[in-house]
């Protein structure tokens, strides 16, 4: 006997679980299927983000930041500490607790919203008159609509598969049991910088090998330069423009042969190696072929601007489709699809999706960079304000970085905001709201900001666009 649903969501990461909750809120009889298992084999909804991504990485970033502050920052405040040490097992235990709180939170939200949760792998069986048959474990479900939100997985280096002991993906990187003396990272993208920061703060000697000749190519150049300066000063060794060759695993570590930027033959010997060279969309086990769901050469499910696949009433959202691989992008798509199913006009504005890198200093941006505006031939005005001149930043003892605002030269509309500095992740929200409401830099410059606060730097950057900063 099949069970019938209005909407079946496959995957309970941020794309899937949010889509399921919104669909249920809209009155649809909704099922959500997820196969992730916790250490005891039970359900662990939340996907990559909750289990091996956003949440555990931020937990470790927080612990390691406390450790670094205690070791290097407290003395300046007159706080003395003796015998400072890190208990890695406790740090990992706390991280696991934070993850479990989030898993349990999602199960609670499913109950609260009357979403029927199935723990197991969901796979298409066939198209039927009422929609699609989807199998989970031995159960047959029929859904009028299906939302695929099966996420992504880490990309391995050719010839160097993840063993999660010496060669680590994000999964292994989040459960290294003791601080390695030496740690290598391939790729200085978001994971490379965040995970590199965690283990450097705890005492590892960290080397990052990056193929591209420029550091953080997608980030505004001025901001990327400032961040690079900080990371180098902290002791992260970042080598750009390298070509990674053979990777050999030995008894006590990993040896990476590579060519330096000038073509010189080099070798990196490290205890452990994290490979963070991007992620690939995940459709394993979905049995997409059975219904003819189109998947492109990169492995992504092909969708239009509104997340419609090539099949009627089959939708796909999040990392498994085009666009940035970010949890909040997946969530927005999930909400929009549920609303479209309900005949509403769900909308995702790709121009105002914020990016955050949770290093220290944090890097956050929304909208276009100066190099993108130049490439598009847009006339713009730029304003920057350094945290060095911000009272709150001085009181915090954290004056690295700046806020940079880019506005259209003719209309003054804000086209991009780029921040490197403390709590950039929180500060960027104001810029997102401003851009969503098509604010001008003058609008932001005239809004009252609390004093003393880091957000005053955003107001001052807006003033700087018109060359009239008040505090610099
Ligand atoms: P996922 O979260 O990958 O979820 C997909 C789910 O579907 C999984 O639970 C999987 O088990 C399940 N599944 C797959 N196939 C099936 C099937 N056939 N049947 C049943 N279940 C199935 N993004 C941010 O915005 N901020 C961050 O700070 C951030 N930090 C990150 C840190 C790391 C280390 C990593 C790796 C990623 C990070 N990301 C971050 C990216 C973020 O995790 C992803 O963009 C997000 O998880 C994508 O959500 P999703 O729902 O599309 O897929
Ligand atoms: P990434 O795309 O951010 O960075 C990958 C880096 O590896 C790039 O700089 C690339 O040039 C480099 N690279 C690729 N192949 C290489 C090779 N063979 N040798 C050396 N360098 C190579 O990917 P990453 O860090 O794996 O993260 C995956 C995704 O997860 C991110 O794009 C992001 O969407 C998401 N994420 C988001 C976070 C956040 O929002 N704070 C945190 C972590 C991940």
SS class:
alpha/beta
- Structurally, the number of domains stands at 3
What's the CATH class of the largest domain, please? Alpha Beta
Q: Assign an overall shape.
A: globular
CATH topology of the largest domain: FAD/NAD(P)-binding domain
The profile of the biggest β sheet is: 7 strands, mixed
Low-confidence regions? none
CATH evolutionary superfamily of the largest domain: FAD/NAD(P)-binding domain
Please give the radius of gyration in angstroms.
24 Å
User: How much of the residues is beta strand, in percent?
Assistant: 25-35%
- By CATH, the architecture of the largest domain is named 3-Layer(bba) Sandwich
Helix run count: 13
Essential attributes:
globular; seven-stranded mixed sheet; 472 residues; Enolase-like, domain 1; 22 strands; five-stranded parallel sheet; binds 1,4-dihydronicotinamide adenine dinucleotide; alpha/beta; FAD/NAD(P)-binding domain; binds flavin-adenine dinucleotide
